[in-house]
Amino acid sequence: MELFNTLTGRVEPLTPSDGATFRMYACGPTVYDYGHIGNFRTFIHVDTLRRYLKQIGMPVRHVMNVTDVDDKIIRNASAAGMDIAAYSKRFEGAFFEDMESLGLERPEVVPHATDNIPEMVSLIERLRDQDIAYQAEDGSWYFRIAKFPDYGKLSKKDFDGIEDGARVDVDEYEKDAARDFALWKAVKNDSNGVREHSWETSLGAGRPGWHIECSAMASKYLGDTFDLHAGGEDLMFPHHENEIAQSESATHKQFALHWMHVRFLLVEGRKMSKSEGNFYTLRDLLLKGHRASAIRFLLMSVPYRHQLNFTFDGLAESTSAVERLRTFAARMKGTFPAGINEELAAATAKALAGYDAALSNDLNTAEARAAIFDLVRAGNVAADAGALRAENATEILAVLQRFDGVFAVLQDRDAEITRSALDWAEQSGRINEASAELLATLSFTDADIDALVTERTHAKKSRNFARADAIRKELLEKGILLEDSKDGVRWKRK
RNA sequence: GCACCGAUGGCGAAGUGGCUAACGCGCUGGUCUGCAAAACCAGUAUUCAUGGGUUCAAAUCCCAUUCGGUGCUCCA
After folding, report:
1. Closest nt to residue A41, judged CA to C1'
2. Could you tell me the distance in Å between the CA of residue A226 and the C1' of nucleotide B30?
3. Would you say A70 and A197 are in contact if contact means Cβ atoms under 8 Å apart?
4. What ipTM was reported for this prediction?
5. How far apart are the first and last CA of chain A?
6. Looking at residue A84, which CATH number applies to its domain?
7. Of A388, A407, A426, at which residue does a domain stop?
């Protein structure tokens, strides 16, 4: 398994440096609002990595922090008249529900910033003892970048010479140098004159800076040096650069050996932003009637190092693609004559090899996807020609299983997920955001559908095709598709 | 402004020196079907933003131009 390493600029092998468990850290969510599809693209690719590593037999210890104290949380919580713990818990709960909807595995360790304040303080103390951390007039502590010559090695920035000239004062007056970043923010009053949430520590009353959280939690749960650190491309600078500076200054050891950065997505060709009106949370999409599986498949179809242009056409495409995979998997579960078709067995083996080669090569999900569709076509051709044998079906199902261990779209949980999204919308007074078609479809229970399907079958038997077609049409208008097959009628929600 | 990344069919997208340029979606025609759907078959880029260069050989390497994105500031 090889993966591009931002630090070295090369594709390099991934192995557990302790010879046993692969230790990885991913910057998790700041829980101040609902997660958007850009957040989830990053988390999905990190999940793809962890799923594939496990699949090739590498035990994984994956740590993802939850940032439950920061400026936005403090601001939003105070606006909502809540304390920060209650406020962040609410969005953290929503975040994990969304992860579940998108088929993301829960990391082995999910530490919270507010549970690790002593660790952060002691890390800052170590820096203070080396004169790398210093306290400004307002009581805040900063990191002295001039003391870390390697600063910029991850983002490939050269700060020599820029530093002196860049001493723009503006509101940076307390700092020794403009680039120095906050380790500990001294407590202050908010705009209403209310004292902000803070912790009393040896550094004075205040709260941790964002960067120190990850440094402290990564070393606490993974050790001073660990195998991989991942995050969105925007975190490379300054966040990850600062983590390296803090941790390596404190420990004098290399921090993360490998760095993975997931590129941003565009929405309809433009950067996703609230002002562009193209900003979508997962819940927004579910309420519009898009399926969780299609969203997942689209987000992971484009390899992590390329920009993904998220479009509604793309979402429709992914819906069809997932449907095709599911239809095929169901077909392979049928009964076939005993024996094996060697030609098809060879195609099956080739698909499996292609899938592994693709993911092993810097997590090329697009190529892995292609290998699977090659298998779908080969299997369908053989089945149509009556050349599919029982052993082939078993083998194919095993390959699909392996594929789904990473892609995780075969099991259909879509209706269930959409229903919970609707429940949530109802409870939070946002049901008006749900699409009319979706509500119409879901107003039909499975029993209602089955009754109509049965009636149609009787109509067909008595060759009353007009009635049969009318029922089919009625169901289609409610978003339900019928398929007549030799084994009876199958229906599915559009 | 400085730095970095990208541009492949109707759309998404793989491919980074040499097999007929993967795969998915869509579209057109056919098979199957009472009709559909699903599935299959055939067709759907002589060509990889534009211009120049290197090479026996370029989508792939080099230079320039145009367009798009990102970082330099909170951001996945």
Report:
1. B76
2. 59
3. no
4. 0.92
5. 38
6. 3.40.50.620
7. A407
Q: How far is the CA of A38 from the C1' of B5 (A)?
A: 18
Q: Are A437 and A481 members of one domain?
A: yes
Q: Do A144 and A97 reside in the same domain of the chain?
A: yes
Residues 6 or more apart whose CB falls under 8 angstroms from that of A300 comprise: A44, A45, A48, A365, A407
For residue A225, which amino acid is it? T
Nucleotides of B under 7 A from a protein CB: 3, 6, 11-15, 22-26, 33-41, 68-76
CA at A299, C1' at B58: how many angstroms apart?
A: 32
Residues 6+ apart with CB under 8 A from A385: none
In order along its 494 residues, chain A shows pLDDT tens digits of 999 999 888 889 999 999 999 999 999 999 999 999 999 999 999 999 999 999 999 999 999 999 999 888 988 898 888 999 999 999 999 999 999 999 999 999 999 999 999 999 999 999 999 999 999 888 999 999 888 988 888 887 766 544 433 333 334 445 677 788 999 999 988 777 888 889 999 999 999 999 999 999 999 999 999 999 999 988 998 899 999 999 999 999 999 999 999 998 888 878 888 777 788 999 999 999 999 999 999 999 999 999 898 988 899 999 999 999 999 999 999 889 999 999 999 999 999 999 999 999 999 999 999 999 999 999 999 998 899 999 999 999 999 999 999 999 999 999 899 999 999 999 999 999 999 888 888 788 888 899 999 999 999 999 999 999 999 998 888 888 899 987 788 888 77
Closest nucleotide to A38's CA, by C1' atom? Answer: B76
Nucleotide in closest CA–C1' contact with A327: B38
Nearest residue (CA) to C1' of B76: A39
Helices (H), A267-389: 282-287, 292-301, 312-332, 342-360, 365-384
Q: What is the DSSP code (8-state) at residue A320?
A: H
Q: Give chain A's domain count.
A: 3
- A110 lies in the same domain as A156: yes
Give the CA A9 to C1' B3 distance in Å: 16
Same domain, yes or no: A203 and A278: no
> H-helix or E-strand containing A229?
strand A226-232
Task: Round to a whole number and report the distance in Å from the CA of A301 to the C1' of B48.
Answer: 21
